Amino acid sequence: MPGAKKSIDAFLANIGYPLLFMSAIGLHFFTAFTAYNLVAPGGWRYVATAAALAYVAIAEAVVAYYAWRDSGSMINGYSVWILAWVFLLIVVLGLATIHKRMRG
Predict the structure, then answer these.
(1) What is the pTM of this model?
(2) Contact status, residue 91 vs residue 8, Cβ threshold 8 Å
């Protein structure tokens, strides 16, 4: 099992954690961009964008709800990105759990 431990450790350190971090930042800016596009033209667009940048998890939930209302479907462009990021989070945390259990 030492080879498997090293492989999981290398994957997490070199790919898993950096990818999770970079994709979280990208998703956060995509949330702000989506919030900007969902609000009617005017000054409130900038307020919504600033709020989306300031409040991470709350903004993602609120933008997902309004994207759902705007598109009429629960599966829309924004929710697919949220689901993909959650899937990546589950994979990385699952591998981290496996790695921790292999260490003993």
Answers:
(1) 0.85
(2) no
